[in-house]
Amino acid sequence: MxxxxxxxxxxxxxxxxxxxxxxxxxxxxxxxxxEALYQAExxxxxxxxxxxxxxxxxYYSLDDPRSxxxxxxxxxxxxxxxxxxxxxxxxxxxxxxxQRLLDQSxxxxxxxxxxxxxxxxxxxxxxxxxxxxxxxxxxxNAPRKLQLQAALLRGQCLIALGRHKEAVxxxxxxxxxxxxxxxxxxxxxxxxxxxxxxxxxxxxxxxVGTGTAGDKMHDALRDKANLTLGFTLLQNKQTIEARxxxxxxxxxxxxxxKALLWVGWSDAAxxxxxxxxxxxxxLRKRDITDVAVQEAMLAAPYGYSQLKAFGRSxxxxxxxxxxxxxxxxxxxxxxxxxxxxxxLDAMLRDEATTDTAWLFDLRKLPDAPETRYxxxxxxxxxxxESYRNYRDLRDLEDNVTYWxxxxxxxxxxxxxxxxxxxxxxxxxxxxxxxxxxxxTQISARRDQIADQLKTLLRKxxxxxxxxxxxxxxxxxxxSIRARIDRLRPQPGLEMLKQKHERLEGLxxxxxxxxxxxxxxxxxxxxxQLDETIAMTRKTQAELARGKSEAALSYxxxxxxxxxxxxxxxFLKIKIDGLKAYQGQYMERRAIGELRRRKDRLRRxxxxxxxxxxxxxxxxxxxxxxxxxxKAKPE
Length: 634
Prior knowledge:
By secondary structure, the protein is mostly helical. It has a domain at about 1-210: Serine Threonine Protein Phosphatase 5, Tetratricopeptide repeat, CATH 1.25.40.10. About 25% of the residues are buried. It has helices spanning about 1-15, 30-40, 45-60, 75-85, 90-105, 110-125, 130-135, 145-160, 165-175, 185-195, 200-210, 215-235, 240-245, 255-270, 275-285, 290-305, 310-340, 340-345, 360, 375-380, 380-460, 470-485, 495-515, 515-550, 560-630. It starts with a helix and ends with a helix. The chain has 25 helices and no strands. The longest helix has about 80 residues, at about 380-460.
């Protein structure tokens, strides 16, 4: 039983491997995968998991997923989503995803990491045999850190199954690895103790208890090792040795109350009740909601009674009765407050966070009946998980409510777009059609010119390359020649014909000598025209796309918005039901725990009243004996 309790504490502290912490220098091919990594780095885990989960769903719905950029990171994305969902306690979904990766032909490194995560899911669900079977899939080529984590997880499963000797052989090489930050050595020590190798177990836990100081987690682990050693030795009647280990526990740590209580009992077992009273009296001044403090309320007067100080013992027992009565009344008030629904409201206050410092943040809560025992309840793993589920449901409800409130804004946006674009698009379409017809005509004329230039390359025709002015001059010269030919013979007529021939020859000479140059320029102009037409076509395509986008920016959304709103309304109803169920479960569990606490207080109060009466009787008896001794004649 001791090993099982310690196992729960240690497994809750183990860090979960994050797929986003792999080689960050690698190239990111998919924008959405990179965005999910960024959101995770910013600790926006909900945004990261929802966006990447949607991207994976879209990826698997494609006809050819390999053409999608996510195919470069698909396996990493599966592991990443599994890590995030595992933190949200979505064990079934994570298990199915990891099993799918194991069944596929994926890279060996991906299979190894998927097997480890699936093993963790099975361990969390207390399916220890399944976890051991899954961990067997991890290859010998897995990274060393993953092998160490898998060995530690295997050892924890074996301890939970009571196969302690096997756990010793598995955890022995792990205990010497500094990468596991004390968890390996601690579990190895527990396995040694439970397997019957008491001396080796003591030595191993002593190494953990005397390790170098670190952060709060490592300090707590050291205190836990020392507390385990002290309690085990105390049970074995080795009180002197037990005290030396219990004294190592920090006075302000999470295990300090139990350590003070057991230090007192170790002194009492040796008959040193005066020394035992020192830690017990210190403990009496601490938070009365702690069980160790309540036991100290009885232990301290018991110590005085053993020292024959029955009067002092009776007074302390009386104080204990008052404290137990007062605490019992406060428990009743807390139960009433919980039934009135105030407990769940307190659990959702901003001070009650779910991060790593939640225990310290809970101290900020005001002292009220509904919040008085939250820290004690949250210390339990099952209740803590229930609380996290309840808070996640509240956050999900807020997220759904936020998107429900956005529908009115989206509909207003669509209305504004429709009112703006609907009057403009008919005119734009008409003008676009005119420009399209004009561009078609220009393209047809261009093709005619291109055919003519091809013909001129095969058959020389200088006048085909004449300019408009030169063609006009040629028509004028032909008209003048016709008029000359109609003249009667007269002096100077022959000279006029010669001038005409010279002018016409000069024109032909000019056109003929510039033929090649003009033909080359014509091809160059044709290429420029092609570039202009191509640019115009591109602009035309952009305009067409802009027209379509303008129309699509407000058309076809009504049905989609209606469907989405119905889905969100259904989710809201489902979340409300789950939240109510989870809240009622937490209330029942809290009330059950408080009732057990009240029963314990009642037993303590009964013991204190009988012990108080007995102490008063003994005190009176002592006074009578003293009076008789004084009354005797000399």
